[in-house]
Specification:
The structure holds 2 protein chains of 2 kinds.
Chain A (H helix, E strand, L loop, with lengths): L4 H21 L28 E8 L6 H20 L7 E8 L4 H13 L6 E3 L3 H14 L3 E3 L12 E3 L4 H14 L4 E7 L2 H17 L2 E8 L7 H10 L3 E5 L4 H11 L9 E3 L18 E4 L10 H10 L9 H20 L4 H10 L3 E4 L2 E4 L12 E5 L5 E6 L18 H9 L3
Parallel strand pairs in A: 1-2, 1-3, 3-4, 4-5, 6-7, 6-8, 8-9, 9-10
Antiparallel strand pairs in A: 10-13, 11-12, 13-14
Helix pairs in contact in A: 2-10, 3-4, 5-6, 10-11
Chain B lengths: L5 H22 L2 H26 L8 H20 L5 H6 L15 H25 L4 H21 L1 H4 L5 E2 L3 E2 L2 E2 L3 H27 L1 H11 L1 H6 L4 H27 L1 E2 L6 H14 L6 H19 L4 H15 L7 H6 L16 H8 L1
Antiparallel strand pairs in B: 1-4, 2-3
Helix pairs in contact in B: 1-8, 2-8, 2-11, 2-12, 2-13, 3-5, 3-11, 5-11, 8-9, 8-11, 9-11, 12-13
């Protein structure tokens, strides 16, 4: 209404020319019908430089933002493992030269930095991530560029990427042992409390399926966003529901608010105990005595008596900027770097395809602080012992339950008949 | 009213186009080209903010809302394209047996998606702007309201995990309107579309600023009451600028998705919306190139400085922001004029302070 039609025409014309030019310039890319959509097939050749006496590796952890409190420890223990490996001769005789990147608790940043590490820094593999959201942001990038990502935290399972190695527990190594423990204690009613994101939502979906099989009744289910600490109204619902046990899948600092609300509402471990899957030695001190007496399900505890654990604890306590306590996720991160070393040396090469082939054809094991773990070359997870610990007054865990042997990883729960086959089929083929 | 000669601005846009469309794809690595594409998306939104805030005086602190409309419309289409006949994987995780939510269905169609990217922000900004401007809501009230909307939308998306992917967002897109996204040639194409759209947006605001509408907009910004006395309705003038800026934010959001490969509520919430404003203020909100260049500079700083100095980068950004506001209220693009005086700035490029005393007085009363 304000412009003359002549000006408008000129404007439309320029715009059209610009867009057409852009389209024409690049109209040579592959289309869906060209059948090149397979993972990694169209990736550029790897630029990893193995000619010198060093190998570059990428560490990708949130050093800033909400997850920094947990992920800085993972970053630090990766540095310690790299120093240890370098002192003992490196990987295939090459010293590790690491590139540390900040994921900034922002999932697109994780994707951006993964691409940078693989294409600019040309690293052999990337180690890090914590939340499932960060892993889901990294996954398409490593699959596209045919890189390697080592993920050190327990998670919800139902995933097995050819480009990711999972050194934390999958569902049947943490959630299912926790449910078995509850069943053995005669628990009849259970309340689910979790952070509102992919891990707790999925874990609880699995818990509900298994609970039905075990005859445990779910009497409530509440979620609070990751960055919110106020659990008062949700805990009031727990008080009203009077469950035998609370299954806690809350992550990060939100746990502090939850435990505070739990204590303020007069709930006690004697009558309404909590079993957590994200409270470890690192987090427990922040919650004070209110958390004492409650339970956690992990594979590794600092109190674990194995041949390798004392040395690990000692090295960590002596390491600069260490938190002084060891915990499951950092132990899994420690495993991840050694597992990569074992894989590369079994393959005799840093090449991703050679590493994946070695994982399939050879037996890869590592004497971890939690015991001797072995890699499943098909699903890229490791075997782990299941443990339930009870928090004592020193914020350490007294082990009250242990699986009778190491639990083989089963991310798609194929060995469990209560998990519907059609869901498994849908998930295995689904994207997004 | 003095003005920059048209050929100066036009040749500037031309040079910008040559650098973005021809030089950048030749000299930059894949990684930096992708990053530049991302900055272009923020720059497209920033051009719109320049129009609404720099020329129109409306401090739009919630452009993340419109960025989200475009981004999620595009992301839903790409997710469905990748999933084919199946329900997207993340939905299966939470409720395996439920069907696709009804509001997702139309986004299977490419045409509907493109239409939605254009029409959704126009309708949303149209209704919102009409309601606000007709009631003469402005200044701090307007800014806070838009900001609150961005917070509300980010919270809504975070809490509807099965419908929108929640905090994890939508990612893992394999196809872009039939093109395989992994193919390097197609990545260049997606980049060129974003860069081309940025040039188109620059041309559009250049045309706006030259037109009578542009003059009316500046007049409304500087003396709304006088414009009203002259017989124009300031509400309509502001509404047009607001709707156009919303449309640009939506286009930026839509292109952000195939370039970055993921969209999450954190990219559209309060902090993200403020970062968009910061780039615009940094570059010079009322100038033609300032908003776009400022947004790109902030984006670049985030990728490169944030990488070498993760703890310090936000402090640098904050410090720069304070210094620029104190010493160069019209942004970095006013720097050449300040020192040399060889370009004569038009009054349109010298906006009043974001909140002047008179306006605050008005707010109080």
């Amino acid at each position: 209404m304000f412009t003359t039609s002549k000006r408008l025409r000129a404007l439309v014309a320029t715009g059209a020319i610009g867009t057409t030019m852009a389209l024409v310039l690049a109209g040579c890319g592959a289309r869906a019908s060209d059948d090149t959509a397979g993972a990694g097939s169209s990736a550029a050749a790897s630029c990893v430089d193995t000619s010198g006496d060093t190998i570059k590796l990428g560490f990708l952890n949130s050093l800033t933002g909400g997850m920094a409190i947990s992920e800085k420890t993972v970053s630090n223990v990766l540095h310690m493992a790299a120093d240890e490996i370098n002192t003992s001769g490196g990987i295939l005789g090459k010293k590790i030269q690491y590139v540390q990147e900040d994921g900034a608790t922002d999932w697109p940043t994780f994707a951006e930095k993964t691409e940078k590490l693989l294409t600019q820094d040309c690293v052999g593999a990337i180690f890090g991530g914590w939340t499932s959201s960060s892993r889901k942001a990294v996954k398409p990038v490593v699959e596209k560029l045919n890189g390697l990502f080592f993920y050190p935290v327990q998670y919800e399972g139902l995933e097995a990427s050819p480009n990711i190695y999972y050194t934390g527990a999958t569902t049947n190594q943490q959630i299912i042992p926790a449910m078995d423990f509850l069943a053995s204690k005669g628990v009849k009613t259970l309340f689910l409390a979790g952070s509102d994101y992919v891990f707790p939502r999925t874990a609880n979906a699995i818990i509900k399926l298994y609970a039905a099989k075990l005859g445990i009744k779910i009497v409530g289910e509440e979620y609070v966003p990751l960055d919110k600490d106020d659990w008062t109204s949700q805990v009031a619902k727990i008080v009203a529901a009077k469950p035998d046990f609370i299954f806690n899948t809350i992550n990060g600092s939100s746990n502090v608010g939850f435990i505070k609300a739990y204590y303020d509402a007069g709930l006690t471990p004697a009558k309404t105990p909590i079993i957590s899957v994200s409270i470890a030695e690192e987090e427990a001190p922040a919650m004070g005595h209110a958390v004492t007496g409650n339970y956690a399900s992990w594979n590794y505890f600092q109190s674990l008596k194995t041949d390798t654990n004392p040395k690990f604890i000692q090295s960590w306590k002596a390491y600069p900027n260490s938190s002084g306590v060891t915990s499951d996720p950092m132990e899994a991160a420690y495993i991840s770097l050694y597992l990569y070393k074992e894989l590369v040396e079994a393959a005799g090469s840093f090449d991703v395809n050679a590493v994946n082939a070695a994982a399939k054809s050879k037996t890869i094991t590592f004497d971890a602080p939690e015991g001797k773990v072995s890699l499943n070359g098909t699903n890229h997870h490791i075997s782990k012992p299941g443990h339930i610990g009870q928090i004592n007054a020193n914020n350490q865990f007294d082990i009250v339950w242990a699986s009778d042997k190491f639990i083989e990883p089963d991310p798609y729960l194929e060995g469990y008949d209560w998990f519907p086959a059609d869901i498994r089929k849908q998930l295995a083929g689904a994207a997004g | 009213m003095t003005k920059l000669k048209p050929w100066i601005s036009l040749s500037g846009i031309g040079m910008f186009a040559v650098v973005l469309l021809a030089v950048a794809p030749l000299v930059l690595t894949d990684h930096w080209l992708t990053n530049l594409g991302k900055y272009c998306c923020w720059a497209i939104a920033a051009v719109g903010i320049g129009l609404a805030w720099g020329r129109g005086g409306m401090l739009v602190m919630g452009q993340g809302v419109f960025f989200a409309l475009g981004a999620y419309a595009m992301a839903m289409h790409l997710t469905l394209e990748t999933a084919g006949d199946r329900v997207p994987g993340f939905m299966v995780l939470y409720d395996p047996l439920a069907p696709l939510p009804a509001f997702w269905e139309p986004f299977r169609s490419a045409g509907f998606t493109l239409l939605a990217i254009v029409l959704l922000p126009v309708i949303a900004a149209g209704i919102l702007g009409y309601a606000l401007f007709k009631r003469r809501v402005k200044g701090a009230y307007f800014a806070i309201l838009t900001q609150a909307l961005a917070v509300a939308l980010a919270t809504l998306i975070s809490s509807t995990i099965r419908e929108t992917g929640g905090d994890t967002g939508l990612s893992d897109f394999k196809l872009f309107f039939g093109f395989v996204l992994n193919d390097p040639a197609n990545k260049v194409m997606v980049y060129l579309i974003a860069a081309g759209l940025l040039i188109v947006c620059l041309l559009a605001v250049w045309q706006f600023y030259r037109s009578r509408f542009g003059e009316l907009l500046v007049a409304t910004r500087d003396a709304e009451e006088r414009v009203r006395f002259l017989g124009y309705d300031p509400a309509n003038i502001k509404l047009v600028a607001f709707v156009v800026s919303a449309l640009m934010a939506s286009i930026g959001g839509a292109m952000f998705v195939p370039i970055v490969g993921i969209i999450t509520p954190a990219e559209i919430g309060a902090a993200a919306s403020i970062l968009m404003i910061a780039g615009v203020a940094f570059g010079g909100r009322a100038s033609l190139f300032g908003p776009a260049l400022g947004a790109m500079a902030v984006g670049w700083g985030q990728s490169s400085l944030g990488s070498t100095w993760p703890d310090g980068w936000t402090y640098i950004l904050g410090l720069l922001f304070v210094v620029v506001i104190l010493l160069l209220p019209n942004g970095l693009s006013s720097l050449p004029a300040r020192f040399t005086g060889w370009t004569r700035r038009s009054p349109a490029e010298q906006p009043a302070p974001a909140f002047d005393a008179a306006e605050l007085e008005e707010v109080r009363s």
